[in-house]
Automatic annotation (TrEMBL):
Pfam families: Glyco_hydro_4, Glyco_hydro_4C
GO BP term, example: carbohydrate metabolic process
SUPFAM superfamilies recorded: LDH C-terminal domain-like, NAD(P)-binding Rossmann-fold domains
Marked site (Increases basicity of active site Tyr) residue numbers: 113
Organism: Vagococcus acidifermentans
InterPro entries (UniProt xref): Glyco_hydro_4 (IPR001088), Glyco_hydro_4_C (IPR022616), Lactate_DH/Glyco_Ohase_4_C (IPR015955), NAD(P)-bd_dom_sf (IPR036291)
GO molecular function annotation: 6-phospho-beta-glucosidase activity; metal ion binding; oxidoreductase activity, acting on the CH-OH group of donors, NAD or NADP as acceptor
The EC number(s) this enzyme carries: 3.2.1.86
Glycosyl hydrolase family 4 C-terminal domain span: 198-415
Protein name: 6-phospho-beta-glucosidase
Superkingdom per UniProt: Bacteria
Amino acid sequence: MVRNALKIVTIGGGSSYTPELIEGYIKRKDELPIKEIWLVDIEDGKEKLEIVGDMAKRMVKAAGLDWEVHLTLDRREALKDADFVSTQFRVGLLDARIKDERVPLSHGVLGQETNGAGGMFKAFRTIPVILDIINDMKELCPDAWLVNFTNPAGMVTEAAIKHGGWKKTAGLCNVPIGHKKQAAEKLGIDEDKLFFKFAGINHFHWHRVWDDEGNERTAELIDLIYGPKTEQESHLKNIFDASFHYEQIKDLGLLPCGYHRYYYIEDEMLAHSVEEFEKGETRAQVVKETEARLFELYKDPKLDYKPKELEQRGGTHYSDAACELIASIYNDKRTEMVVSTQNNGTITDLPYDCVVEVSGPVTAHGHEPYNWGNFPPAARGIIQLMKGMEETTIRAAITGDYGAALHAFTINPLVPGGKMAKTLLDELLIAHKEYLPQFSEAITRIEETQPETVAYVEKLMASN
Ligand code: G6P
């Protein structure tokens, strides 16, 4: 890339994470010749955009930089001639996430923004929007890179690459960053002296670790992190610290990610989530309050740096990863990163054209994943199931096909039973109807023939 006056656009610029992004760019000011930063949001996010946008301007000024920071509700104006576009938007704002969590939990089923029923609905709401953004990009900035960290990051990235045809897409997540730091700390070795190989899909990957003498340290880390004498920590603010079963992890011989708790010890995670639900403290409800406090801080005209309180959010390090990825593409730095990217045979157990989350250097041409090969049988079956579920969810998100949506719900390991799958699907379609035009036919049918479904959702939402 030879441009030396970069235009970087962030869609969902009114997010409370934006100061982390700006901090990440400032940290890399010598590597990135930024001219313009465009923060884009929608009418409903206008107030937040103005508050956090003004703070972004103060941060840039305090760093002595002459970057232009533009705030706009006009996505097309922002995208014109962009070099990098990052996405961090949430369709339906946090209120939609509250529904993703509360509807399933009201039936004693896990509700989570990227896993289970909630995650599938977030995909239904988000995928049509990312495809719309790509349509604009094809016209307005055909050479730009798309850096996605909108959740569910794996499915959204797969939709962008496979269905939007935008090959220059990289999906990011902060979970691997936390695991790298944890490994370095447990082994007492600098992170940059360790070599990591992650493989799987977003929020469902495993990893192996080697030291700089080429010795594999995975088994030792399993003992140190999950051994009988260890108090286990999830190291993610949004994930309850329930303990994995050591013997099972040892048998697999791979380090799990924090989100495997929802699958390997689902009963414990569910019990904890139900408790939160009963107290009116699901994660989304807590985050809504944290966010309100953050925006009060951001309003302070003297605040010109990222406040510590942002660390209360689970996505810390996300934006920093985005900035590093951009710097690595721009400078061909070959920074080792874990990225959601097209499989192309990296994981032989999964389809060639699907998106996987894997390790590798980021070059001027994008991410170049290291070969992983195949998984042991105990991981192979479940990851193939999860990928099939993701592909079916994406298909339903694009077509609005009720049968495909029901199929995705039925095969998702966190949704117990076909009857429950249908109940949750119907209720969530009603709860989110304003954001799901592709499902309008199914929604009308439910409204006309299942008044009890509509009444249940209304009552639940009123008790929020
Ligand atoms: C983790 C995940 C992110 C997710 C975040 C939620 O870090 O990797 O995908 O967005 O947690 O954090 P929150 O503070 O919104 O619950």
